Amino acid sequence: MLIKKIRRQLFQLRHGNLLAFLKKFSKLRALLKFVSRFSFQDRRFWKKLTKISNNFVSSVGRTIEADESESLAASKVEDILNSIRALIRDNKTAEALEKHRQGAELFPKSLELKQAHAQTHFLRGEWKKYLAVSTEADQLMQQLAREQSVDEARLRFLGNGWTGPLGHISLLDAVIKLRELNLLSDERRILLYDSQYSSNSSLLKLFLPKILNIQSDIKLIEKFTQKFNSIVDHVPIYRLRTKIVDQWSAIDIANQAWSKEHREPVVKLSDSIEARGMSILKRWGLASDAWFVVIHVREGDHRAHARLQNAEISTYFPMINEIVNRGGWVIRMGSPLMTPLPEMKNVVDYAHAVERVDWMDVFLWAKAKFSIATNSGGSEVPMCFGTPVIRTNYSSYGHCSFFERSFMVPKLYKLKSQQLPMSLQHTLQTPIPWCESTVHENIDFEIIDNSPQDLVDAAVEMFSRFEKNNWDMTDHQAKAQNIRLNEGAVGGLPISQSFLDNHRLFAQA
């Protein structure tokens, strides 16, 4: 095909149409450049994979293109998934489940449908059903891996989903810890990534020396993981030696075991990032011995099924003042689309600063005295560096992973048919705290965000614990944690004592 195009261009040149030739030659060069780049990526990918496991490459060959029947089936499955996504966007999740049932009858061996089915239960706050269908998906993966004879090489691949969103990159921390603790299943994990599509390439680079990895083109990775999806680890589920677990349980298991052995954080700042970061702090006016706290409060016009994590930054102003009055600085992190902060003493609105860059994000997460965050990716990353976190306005406390020297301040929920907010036990008996959705069919409820006083008291509690160096749970915190566990919640992050003091009915059984 390319040779024919070149011949046509030469024919035009011989007939004097030089301008037309130059235009078409320019397009041809671009096409050749793309083909050459893709071919190079393809060769490099298979060369690296062969070095890791020649047995795997020899057994599967080097083709990742789907045949005609596979493409047709994939197209039909995608049509079903698109109709399910449309129903979910319209908050018709019960109808979406019926579509899943119909799809499973047509394509009983579709991993995509089975995994999406689990996520629909998650969106509905149906935790036990989410876990049950996830287990079915894992069993199907094992069956397909045996049928395709791709399980013998003992490999698992981590695809594009692990390196895109910020919170997903931080999940690599648990993968590495579980492997080092000998708790992860014994397959070798290989991270496949395209650094151009990472939300923070500087953070990702810190993890790369700790895990087998292959850098490649995002489309090639997508094709590869679709071809071998039976041996691909997806973000929500971790495969341990004895069972599969959800991501929050996996992180919790990893962090608790890591903490008991008093191990150092998996990642740490490079000397160059630390030096550059300190120079920017100096530019902002921080003295060399100054300390600071980072804050990230999720906001924005997000879809209804993820809006529960949001909060109003203005409600945090008294908390910010409490920190500043104690001699600290506060650095607000996040997107430049966020509401700008007013001028405040010792406060840097880094989300709108000219210095905002991925390596500076990493510096701030690692060097902060502690972090204040809502439950989003911005609350996960500081933990990778051993930075304590107050997880404020925490909405989905059916699952909240432990990290040392950290605690959460949960949201309250009130049924519109009742006068008082629900207790912890009552709330966990509803779908609300098991996902991030503000919409649940047949449940009419109100969201009560943390009050400014709740937030101030949480900061005071953190400072008190630093001063006393006491991070043990109080009796009241232990009681609240037992309520969570008895209702099937996962994760050992305690609820702040100050919140329990302010809302004494919350932790009553």
Summed up:
49% of the residues lie in helices and 11% in strands. By secondary structure, it is of the alpha/beta class.
Features:
single chain; 509 residues; alpha/beta; Rossmann fold; 3 domains; 6-stranded parallel β-sheet; 4-stranded parallel β-sheet; 14 strands; globular
Give the CATH topology of the largest domain: Rossmann fold
Which segments are poorly predicted (pLDDT under 50) over 5 or more consecutive residues? none
Mean pLDDT over the full residue set: 91
Task: Give the second-level CATH assignment, the architecture of the largest domain.
Answer: 3-Layer(aba) Sandwich
- Count of beta strands: 14
Radius of gyration over all CA atoms, rounded: 26 Å
Biggest beta sheet summary: 6 strands, parallel
**Annotated CATH homologous superfamily of the largest domain:** Glycogen Phosphorylase B
CATH class of the largest domain reads Alpha Beta
Question: In the residues, how many domains can be counted?
Answer: 3
Give the terminus-to-terminus CA distance.
74 Å
| Secondary-structure class | alpha/beta
Basic shape: globular
> Widest sheet: strand order?
9-8-7-10-11-12
Strand content: 5-15%
| Approximate helicity band | 40-55%
How many helical elements?
20
Give the SSE map.
Blueprint: H1 2-14, H2 18-52, H3 54-60, H4 68-89, H5 93-106, H6 111-123, H7 127-147, E1 155-158, H8 166-170, H9 172-180, E2 188-193, H10 201-207, E3 212-215, H11 218-227, E4 232-233, E5 237-239, E6 244-246, H12 247-260, H13 271-284, E7 292-296, H14 317-325, E8 329-332, E9 347-348, H15 358-367, E10 371-373, H16 377-384, E11 389-394, E12 407-410, E13 412-415, H17 424-428, E14 445-448, H18 452-468, H19 475-486, H20 497-502
Parallel strand pairs: 1-2, 1-4, 2-3, 7-8, 7-10, 8-9, 10-11, 11-12
Antiparallel strand pairs: 5-6, 13-14
Helix pairs in contact: 1-2, 2-3, 4-5, 4-6, 5-6, 6-7, 9-12, 13-15, 14-18
